[in-house]
Specification:
The chain is an alpha/beta fold. Helices cover 39% and strands 28% of the residues. The chain has a five-stranded mixed sheet. Strand 2, helix 1 and strand 3 form a beta-alpha-beta unit. The two termini are 25 Å apart.
Length: 109
């Protein structure tokens, strides 16, 4: 899994791409913590280019890892541009209420 970081307007957008597995989810927590330690608190997670949708549980675990780390630090988290299949999975599983997806970068919830 690869990260692309874009900063602007006090917000950090993290675009993830490639394939995801258990190890990527585990290492994501320390990645987010390192960014928080640098002073970033407002995060947008863009997952539209993340592949390997066969294991949606890893996608949800990645979202949860980012969200928990950011919110525990007092920051704000937004999930942006998830794939259609991830949006469907979140909706069908009832997790869409916990992880709402937006297509607008102006909104940070």
């Amino acid at each position: 899994m690869n990260y692309t970081i874009i900063t602007g307007n006090g917000t950090l957008t993290v675009k993830v791409s490639g394939s995801i597995d258990r190890g990527a989810v585990i290492s994501s927590r320390s990645f987010v913590q390192s960014l928080i330690e640098k002073g970033y608190l407002n995060f947008i997670l863009d997952m539209k280019n993340l592949g390997d949708e066969r294991e949606m549980i890893y996608h949800v675990a990645l979202i949860n890892s980012f969200r928990n780390s950011v919110e525990q630090a007092g920051g704000r988290f937004t999930l942006l541009s998830a794939s259609e299949s991830l949006k469907c999975y979140l909706s069908l599983s009832g997790l869409g209420r916990l992880f709402p997806v937006t297509e607008k970068t102006e909104r940070i919830a």
